[in-house]
Amino acid sequence: EDQVTQSPEALRLQEGESSSLNCSYTVSGLRGLFWYRQDPGKGPEFLFTLYSAGEEKEKERLKATLTKKESFLHITAPKPEDSATYLCAVSEAGYQKVTFGTGTKLQVIP
Amino acid sequence: NAGVTQTPKFQVLKTGQSMTLQCAQDMNHEYMSWYRQDPGMGLRLIHYSVGAGITDQGEVPNGYNVSRSTTEDFPLRLLSAAPSQTSVYFCASSSQGATNEKLFFGSGTQLSVL
Predict the structure, then answer these.
(1) Does residue A39 have a pLDDT over 90?
(2) Beta strands B109-113; B10-13: pairing state
(3) Cα torsion through B58, B52, A37, B108, rounded to 10
(4) Which DSSP letter does residue B84 get?
(5) Does residue B8 have a cis bond before it (omega within 30 degrees)?
(6) Quick one: average pLDDT of B55-69?
(7) Are strands B10-13 and B19-25 parallel, antiparallel or unpaired?
(8) What's the CA gap between B69 and B76, in Å, rounded?
(9) Which of residues 14-33 of B touch A (CB under 8 A)?
(10) For the CA atoms of chain B, what is the radius of gyration?
(11) pLDDT tens-digit profile of A51-80?
(12) What region does A54 belong to: left with phi over 0, alpha with psi -120 to 50, or beta?
């Protein structure tokens, strides 16, 4: 059974204080690892897809990396508008489903 | 640029009542799915569809029915609501299935069953 574990559950940062969110996963054959951002009262919004170990993707202050067992979402010099819940998800080859983690709630304080 | 549209946004039901959550997408996506989101449990897949006329069960299908008569619409039916179905429901779609394509989510339906 696919498992996705995210840590920490919550993270409070000062504006400009860089940090990383962790997503560890267990899946038989990884097809893709996804990062989403979810703001309160809204649906998740897609950020990145990573397909193989060693792959990295960047978008503004966010950088996602992937190893064979985990993914990191690095946040560089965060701003208050980066405050949100960040969700990690995995898909397995041959299955039409995506398994989500419980998320990391990020708060960036001015 | 409507994307994925869910209605209603909020709903309160009494135990035993039935209702249908509506989901429509205007991106001509073949894949559509329903998730529920509960505190501490993340998003869990209820049902999904890979095209018109084709549906399948996800992780937590009990108590829910779906059908897919058109590419655009994927309604979720609660036949006899129970308090355990109190949750936030999200509909999502993608162009080529769930495995390697990003999902587009609706804004959600907050359902309370009393």
Answers:
(1) yes
(2) parallel
(3) -80
(4) G
(5) yes
(6) 95
(7) unpaired
(8) 12
(9) 31, 33
(10) 13
(11) 999 999 999 999 999 999 999 999 999 999
(12) left
Contact A92 B99 (CB under 8 A): yes
Chain B contacts of A101, Cβ < 8 Å? 42
- Residue appearing with tokens 């170990």: A53
CA dihedral B6, B12, B15, B16 (to 10 degrees): -50
Tell me the β-bridge partners of B45. Answer: B35
The pLDDT value given to residue B21: 98
For residue B110, the one-letter residue type is: Q
Q: Is the CB of B92 less than 8 angstroms away from the CB of A43?
A: yes
Q: Among all chains, which residue has been given the structure tokens 């999902």?
A: B103
Q: Would you call A51 and B100 a contact, using CB atoms and an 8 Å cutoff? A: yes
Tokens of A72: 């990191």
Cβ <8 Å between B99 and A32:
yes
Calpha distance B51→B33 (Å, rounded): 11
A45 in B contact zone (CB under 8 Å): yes
Best of A28, A98, A105 to mutate (most B CBs within 10 Å, chain B): A98
Q: What is the mean pLDDT of residues B7-26?
A: 97
Q: State both tokens at B65.
A: 């029915």
Residue A1: pLDDT over 80:
no
Question: What is the Cα–Cα distance from B43 to B16, expressed in whole angstroms?
Answer: 24
Phi-psi region of A16 (alpha: psi -120 to 50; beta: other; left: phi over 0): left
